[in-house]
Amino acid sequence: MRILTPGSLQLSLKLTVVLGSLWMVFLLSFPEKGWDPTYILRYSWLEYTDADGGPEKVCNCSAILRGEREALEQAKLLTITKDFHKSVQIPDEYYINATQDCSQFKLSRKYIPFPLSQEEEDFPLAYSIVVHKKVQNFERLLRAIYAPQNIYCVHVDKKSEASVFFAIWAITSCFENVFMVSQAVNVVYAAWPRVQADLNCMADLYNASTKWKYFINLCGQDFPLKTNLEIVRKLRSLKGANSLESETMAGEKKWRVSNVHQIVDGEIKGIGKAKEPPPFNLPILSGNAYIVVNRGYIRSVLEDNRVLALIEWAKDTYSPDEFLWATIQRIPGVPGSRWPNHKYDMTDMNAIARLVKWQWHEGSQGSLEAVYPECRGTHVRAICVYGAGDLQWILEQQHLFANKFDIDTDPIAVYCLEKYFRQKALAELL
Ligand SMILES: *[C@@H]1O[C@H](CO)[C@@H](O)[C@H](O)[C@H]1NC(C)=O
Ligand SMILES: *[C@@H]1O[C@H](CO)[C@@H](O)[C@H](O)[C@H]1NC(C)=O
Ligand SMILES: *[C@@H]1O[C@H](CO)[C@@H](O)[C@H](O)[C@H]1NC(C)=O
């Protein structure tokens, strides 16, 4: 048994009032941090039960995850029911109030309070999360990826509604290892500030702790497809390599980097002027905004002169998030990078960073032209917002995270993933 710190004693006393003396024995031997094999005996209170589920609990998730038709039809029916959608909504003010008592909030939401294994404690991760609305999406994502040994930087768009900002700020205030970015920017679709938001979090995370091994960036509509332990094991198996899309840029995308762009009235526009070639004649590669990279890659982003010159050069291009990380990944000497020869290209399906279903790559199952089966949810800007019917296929993929999920579109998809991964994380303890 370890010695209680003042913080954990205060926590214990508060909880005792809430839960009664039954918990006292448990709490007195329960330090805030550090892994101990005896936790295995005491984890059952962390299971998600129907009692703390929302209206989604009427669904049979195990049947949904197996793709059983009846269960999927019932789920689909619910997702098109107005009353059901209404019942799932949570106003921003709820979070502001509920987080006034942080220990009660974390306890009732069953945030993981200690590292679930020595292996995970020894391999902390750093997350950058960029959001602009939909607080419930954010909170459920945070809860799904939260572990006390990890560190989380949250960037809320500067132009977000005040209630969104305060709700997210209030949630982050409940955790020592979750913080708001030191400098928030006004994010403009397909323009430089989207990258700047991640860059600001990268700098904060790099400075805040020297311990973390890998960096992962997310947006509010991502959700994990692995437990923290599975993520750690996948990353360890990379042996220092990064995993992100980085491919030869298609001819029809080259205008994005060969013309000068500017933000005019909150929108990005070409100004009819050609750009200089990139610094050091760096080959520009194509990728996406979401990456899984080691600490050394982040150090290069913040300190390598070639990267700093590339960043300056990229500031007036179109959609720099879709080539900058991919290009840095192919600069020789960047830790975990790949040689710039096109034979070393990596597609989004081969990288583990993010699973996205693009509408034009969907097709019927078994069709050779199709990259993936048809979306069972709905499309937003040609990207699938997953429905419950997508889960069975999604869970077979190697990616750490998938995009997009939206509780306003299909809360059941998120609910069933939440339950599945919490159960799995606790089962891994045995
Ligand atoms: C849910 O589905 C599973 C798998 O088909 C089935 O075994 C189980 O009995 C179902 N549970 C309920 C409560 O209907
Ligand atoms: C505010 O939160 C407390 C618990 O933290 C709860 O008892 C109370 O009912 C909440 N008030 C509102 C208006 O939601
Ligand atoms: C890191 O944090 C320290 C302490 O807050 C601060 O003084 C320093 O300027 C920061 N360094 C960077 C590179 O942000």
UniProtKB/TrEMBL annotation:
<dbReference type="GO" id="GO:0003829">
    <property type="term" value="F:beta-1,3-galactosyl-O-glycosyl-glycoprotein beta-1,6-N-acetylglucosaminyltransferase activity"/>
</dbReference>
<keyword id="KW-0328">Glycosyltransferase</keyword>
<comment type="similarity">
    <text>Belongs to the glycosyltransferase 14 family.</text>
</comment>
<dbReference type="GO" id="GO:0000139">
    <property type="term" value="C:Golgi membrane"/>
</dbReference>
<dbReference type="Pfam" id="PF02485">
    <property type="entry name" value="Branch"/>
</dbReference>
<keyword id="KW-0735">Signal-anchor</keyword>
<dbReference type="InterPro" id="IPR003406">
    <property type="entry name" value="Glyco_trans_14"/>
</dbReference>
<protein>
    <recommendedName>
        <fullName>Beta-1,3-galactosyl-O-glycosyl-glycoprotein beta-1,6-N-acetylglucosaminyltransferase</fullName>
    </recommendedName>
</protein>
<keyword id="KW-0812">Transmembrane</keyword>
<keyword id="KW-0808">Transferase</keyword>
<keyword id="KW-0325">Glycoprotein</keyword>
<comment type="pathway">
    <text>Protein modification; protein glycosylation.</text>
</comment>
<keyword id="KW-0472">Membrane</keyword>
<keyword id="KW-1133">Transmembrane helix</keyword>
